[in-house]
């Protein structure tokens, strides 16, 4: 998976807020197929391979159920290694009676569901990048076409949890103002816009991927931020190829006026819509 390794800048880890840790752990282990790497009274770190943190759960003080807040978290997306993995996962969800959405995005096949707090989740598999179609610098990735895995030969019915090679494929956010977000994520963080959708959404990546980050104003321009103790996004971590590249991004963000908290290993900032971004290398 060359778009999610040391050669690219990518989303490596996401932390979400949940209202009830025990309930969420049951869902993320039994339904999604994660393993628990670490657990405390109010937090849990989840992994697919037993070593690499992909998703963390956090219970805020006086936690609230997720409201339909217009700004902030839309979904995180787990990238599965093979088409059969997605087929087996669909079969597994059907056994549990889980309601899903599905789409063929030309570059990928995806299914969508929500956790018990309403946090959005996508699981998808990529088509070979040699089959992706580009028009200039814009990737063609938003046809809805037939639902994924119409060919049932991709389903074996042998789901045993997330494959060890599962990675955090991308994150998608609601933002208040698209142009402010564009400046932050391109001129600051260093991503390139690879698709613009109807003047309401941007898809950004590094290394020629179809997208590592999605941004949209589908819930309204200028929308307010969610309550800090509401279920939803806490933060996401961007992995830069080198310390130098991370430091260059930090400097660009400072020049844009962003506030940065720096320590030896990480730099922490917030995008213009208040989403917490952690820069690592």
TrEMBL record:
Per its UniProt entry, which superkingdom is the organism in?
Bacteria
Specify the VOC domain's residue ranges: 10-126, 167-281
Secretion signal span? none
Q: Which Gene3D superfamilies match?
A: 2,3-Dihydroxybiphenyl 1,2-Dioxygenase, domain 1
Q: Which Pfam families match?
A: Glyoxalase
- What PANTHER family does this protein's entry cite? CATECHOL-2,3-DIOXYGENASE
What is the designated name of this protein? Glyoxalase
């Amino acid at each position: 998976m060359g778009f999610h390794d040391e050669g690219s800048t990518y989303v490596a880890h996401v932390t979400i807020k949940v209202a009830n840790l025990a309930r969420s752990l049951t869902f993320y282990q039994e339904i999604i197929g994660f393993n628990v790497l670490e657990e405390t009274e109010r937090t849990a770190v989840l992994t697919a391979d037993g070593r690499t943190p992909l998703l963390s759960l956090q219970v805020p003080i006086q936690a609230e159920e997720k409201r339909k807040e217009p700004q902030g978290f839309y979904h995180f997306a787990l990238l599965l290694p093979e088409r059969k993995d997605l087929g087996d996962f669909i079969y597994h969800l059907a056994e549990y009676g889980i309601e899903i959405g599905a789409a063929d995005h030309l570059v990928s096949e995806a299914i969508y569901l929500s956790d018990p707090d309403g946090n959005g989740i996508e699981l998808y598999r990529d088509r070979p990048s040699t089959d992706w179609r580009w028009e200039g610098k814009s990737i063609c990735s938003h046809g809805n076409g037939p639902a994924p895995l119409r060919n049932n030969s991709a389903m074996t019915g042998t789901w045993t949890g997330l494959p060890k090679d599962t990675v955090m494929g991308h994150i998608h956010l609601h933002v208040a103002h698209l142009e402010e977000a564009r400046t932050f994520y391109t001129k600051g963080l260093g991503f390139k816009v690879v698709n613009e959708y109807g003047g309401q959404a941007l898809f950004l990546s590094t290394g020629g991927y179809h997208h590592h980050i999605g941004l949209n104003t589908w819930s309204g321009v200028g929308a307010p931020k969610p309550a800090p103790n509401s279920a939803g996004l806490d933060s996401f971590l961007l992995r830069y190829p080198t310390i130098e590249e991370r430091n260059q991004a930090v400097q660009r963000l400072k020049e844009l006026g962003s506030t940065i908290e720096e320590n030896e290993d990480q730099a922490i900032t917030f995008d213009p819509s208040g989403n917490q971004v952690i820069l690592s290398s």
